[in-house]
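User: For my dataset I need records formatted as: sequence, then structure tokens, nothing else. Please produce one.
Assistant:
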Amino acid sequence: MINKLSIVFIVGCQRTGTTLLGNMLGAHPKAYLLDEPNGLYPWVDAVFNGMSSFETNLLFKQCCRSARKNYKQPNSKCSQEGVLTEQVTHLILKAPNLTYQAEKIAEYFPGQYCIFTYRDIRDVVVSMAKLDWIPMVDRQLEKIRTESTLRYRFAEEIALLESQDLAAHQARAYIARIKTLLRDTFNRPEINKIEASYEGLVCDPAFWYQRFLSHIHLSDEAGVSDHSRVMAGWGPGLTYRRGKVNTNSIGQWKHYLSTSQENDVWKIAGPLMQELNYLRNQKFVQHKNLWGGINSNLKHQPIVATGRGGSGTRLLSILLQALNVFLGANTGGTEDSLDWVNLLYRIAIERNRGKGQKPITMGHWQHALRETAADSLTTGGWNGHQQWGWKLPETMMCLPEISEAFPQFKLVHLVRHPVDISLRRTHMTSRPDNPMGKSVLEAAYNKLGWSGEDIGSDPEYIRNAASWYYQVGMVADFGREELGPGRYLEIRYEDICMAPNKALVALAKFLGIQDYPQLVDVQIDTTRQRAWSPPDSRVDKVWSVCREIAETLGYQEVDNLASIETSLTKIE
């Protein structure tokens, strides 16, 4: 099975566009992407270590089966058993840690292809820092130590990294420099190598896509594959596979590194960067300015709809679309505006971890937010005359940045009784098994004065309650104190369920929309309104956590025998 495939190794330092490139090539109808979380390294290690064909084939099938989650519709490429279909001719291995293994790739995969990516090391340093919960330096140093040729070649750098005398940005710069220097180890007759810069890839993706296809002898008869419509889920380092190509992170170091830090990085990596045609004091690329090309005053007035995930924000999206509010052409099953996921998740995690709202970084996010908006509007068919915005629960953690980019934005906040939302299934933001949830829970526990060590052992409903308290309280405070009633509206989930048309009227009035339907078809699943039955011992515990915020929203304590009472006072 493997012998019939062309194999493409994507190598280079982490944070140089390896995941983006893997998604772009993996979206081709005849290609299949195996990424690091899919068990790629155990399979390749088995090949390198000469394990039996039975063992390596078993690991390969497991890897292929795991990689199905990288695709929206995987069946055309791989069966549920992990067997590739006949249409797959190319295997894309996104494997930055194989950057250290050029010799073994040449020995065990002779004649195959390699794409080596690199990037302005100052931007690599910043990108690594944004994922500082991942011990990248320690992990990479360990891998460098295991290779005798690398220990000799980089003895001086290893000694510095082991000394613990380096600042974090310096250590990251050394790792990026070492891995980028290893590009010369792939100059072997057994390896068909091509190099590409991250900046070139994101500035002209169509050109590089065609060049890559030509290099790996993959037909382009299907045209340019749009990976944002083919791929699914998340890649390593909080990379949203459906995210569109953009230039927002080029030159991000200017917003994050101090002058002295930039000097340090340039001292470490400057000669290499000059060899790669990077200029220190000159823009490498002119950023796109889609935002400047939109000639409509409405572009400054987005409608931002949000609410704690799992609270029924889908209903809010339906109401807004009934009012002809443009929420983007790319929406998911819960009516989330998917164009915004990649950017807002990054902002949210940075803020939750106490690294947001710094003047030096706000300018970076302002540009990124506006360009994301412009791309969504121009590619989604917005007519320039209708109100627009987006709906995404995680927007709750990004309001200061959004306010900086769109000073005239309006905020619609869907709220729901904390008991009901805490006693149902968990949401991403209340699970510590992902970067977003981990950052939210750490911030929530800190705000509540709880020990973060309890996050892993606390029951789900307590984590749900803490997540609700942190997120809902944050938005309510911002909306009331910073925006006021003219730009902030709270709508209760219970009120929409009871009288959706009254909720529609209230929303239309808030947005200044006079022409709207008298009736709106909102399909409400009554089985999802309550996932618990009184009496329930968890109710009082949830209320004790959330009461302070809940009462300001008009919610009352549940007597744990009767149903939650709702009123229409918010929307009458």
